[in-house]
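Backbone-to-sequence.
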């Protein structure tokens, strides 16, 4: 996501009650913070619009938004502050960090669901290991997911979708759902909120791909 660098975004985030102070400090203690609610994380949440809507609609779940870039997360924090000036939403927190360190942020089995939406496609063939559905990342998700935990992946990018299906198969994940045109599925109306990227791409007429899968144990 391209955004101009916002000076002092880092300091701002450190002071915000919507952001985890020290990313590694909650490893193994998330359930306590979540008051025993199942923990759902979005990896690469961008400005967090999807998670904010999910948190509003699902008070029985606890959401954690992981994002690498401070300047992007900053936009999400500002949105939350405007909408909930007294922090009236108790089931959402942001964590600034990188997916490659997820094992340091979460203990094995601590997470019920992982969302990946419109992850960077890294189209050059030499960059495939950076894709967030590359097998090494799948292995990380498998570790932090609880026994019945699952992954949901949504994208507008067909090559990335095809790559992901292949990686899941080769890593022995079981797919429970897949569509190559989510917005024209009969159940679409009642489905989850859209992400920021999703609105942008679907307004350009691009089909949205989605799958759900769980690691075979
Ligand atoms: N999920 C949002 C944003 C998609 S853009 C939406 O659908 O609207 C992808 C986001 O993932 C960007 O904000 C990017 O900074 C973030 N990202 C990319 N690689 C990451 C990584 N390794 N760890 C954490 N965030 C990452």
């Amino acid at each position: 996501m391209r955004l101009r660098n916002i000076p002092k975004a880092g300091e701002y985030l450190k002071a915000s009650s919507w952001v985890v102070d020290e990313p590694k400090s909650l490893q193994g203690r998330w359930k306590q913070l979540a008051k025993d609610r199942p923990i759902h994380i979005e990896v690469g949440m961008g400005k967090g619009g999807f998670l904010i809507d999910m948190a509003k609609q699902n008070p029985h779940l606890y959401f954690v938004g992981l994002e690498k870039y401070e300047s992007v997360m900053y936009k999400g924090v500002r949105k939350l502050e405007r909408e909930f000036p007294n922090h009236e939403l108790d089931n959402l927190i942001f964590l600034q960090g990188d997916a490659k360190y997820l094992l340091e942020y979460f203990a094995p089995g601590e997470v019920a669901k992982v969302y990946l939406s419109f992850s960077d496609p890294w189209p050059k063939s030499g960059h495939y290991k950076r894709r967030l559905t590359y097998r090494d990342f799948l292995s990380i998700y498998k570790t932090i997911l609880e026994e019945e935990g699952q992954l949901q992946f949504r994208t507008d990018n067909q090559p990335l979708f095809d790559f992901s299906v292949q990686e899941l198969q080769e890593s022995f994940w079981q797919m429970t759902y897949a569509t190559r045109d989510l917005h024209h599925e009969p159940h679409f109306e009642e489905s989850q909120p859209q992400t920021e990227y999703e609105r942008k791409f679907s307004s350009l007429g691009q089909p949205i791909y989605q799958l759900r899968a769980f690691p075979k144990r």
